Amino acid sequence: MKYHALPLLLLSLVIASCSSKKIKSEYLPSASGKPGDVIVMMDSIRWKGPLGDELRKTFKAEVPGLPRDEPMFNLIHVHPRLGNTLLTQIRNLVFVFTLEPDSPGSRILKEQFNEETLNRIATDTSFFIFTEKDEFARGQEVMYLFAANEELLIKKLRENRQYIQNFFNDLEKNRMVEKILSTTTTKGITEMLKREYGFELRVPFGYKTADTQPDFVWLRQIDAQVDKDVFISWKPYESEYQFLPDSIIAWRDEITRRYIFEDPENPLSFLVTETTVPFKPVKARQTTINQQFAMELRGLWRTNTRTMGGPFISYTVASPETGKIYYLEGFCYSPGKDQRETIRELQAILSTFRIVPKS
After folding, report:
1. Buried b (16+ CB within 10 A) or exposed e, 172-206
2. Cα(first)–Cα(last) distance of the chain, in Å?
3. Do residues 198 and 354 make contact, with C-beta atoms less than 8 angstroms apart?
4. Which tens digit of pLDDT belongs to each residue from 273-321?
5. What is the value of pTM for the model shown?
6. Handedness of CA 146, 151, 155, 161 (dihedral sign)
7. Domain shared by 22 and 127, yes or no
8. Do 31 and 149 have their domain in common?
9. Do 166 and 246 lie in a common domain?
């Protein structure tokens, strides 16, 4: 593969090092761009047509569980041009092309591949996607989407939409996890959770302990822009029926009624799960947390007084070691503001949960 966007000196160093990924990365700049940014490089004619429509359906799909519509990613189209170094250093980069019809943009992208690869694209309909780490920048992920013709590529995008969305969503979450794990200022909270409750959770700078109970912990970060909250509760594990979404929602409402208040001065105020908005239902899916089965819920919360509300994400996991089932939730309050990245951060925090083995 040719690296048109790399400076000549850097390219010579890469070649001299036998394309060693470790050595190559040392000489690359850090990836740029904001969380959620995705640059798509493809021919402008294809972008304005059915292929571009399919890409927009994939990357600009609505994020579930938010009060207002927000796309999964900030999608930016760029026409491919040789030497466009700054744009190829974005953290999430997608190249899209087909072998026909031919166009100036497609020709530039096809030059990235050798003849053997182009022949495989033309003959192997299962070969339509390729990913590469640190292609033009450190901390970058590049995805190539291609096919012999536009009709086939559109079909592949439709069939693999969920995979592509999960690929970049997991990337962004894992980047946040790496950032959280590098935080040392909240070591006291982490050690307290290990010592008192036998589990680990990592949180970024600024989170404080809002409340602790024998079966409940509430961590909170409040600033001028957003109120971010994380809480964990647990009880004995009895059966797999505890993982049913209705059972989880009932348990959640029991926890929030008892411990999560709207107004500290009003003991009658508490949080409830919003289940009365038909076009914003609570959505459940099976997933894993640190290789353990988990049920994920995304939805909306509100106060029983209907004066506040916002989104939440939660995971329910069981631990054979402790014989308990755990409910982990992150929710936020930031009316009138975008909340996609806040929920992504809360998701990253929850994904650091693990039971601490007894010594």
Report:
1. bbebbbeebeeeeebeebbeebeeebbbebbbbee
2. 50
3. no
4. 999 988 899 999 999 998 899 999 999 999 998 888 999 999 999 999 9
5. 0.86
6. positive
7. yes
8. yes
9. no
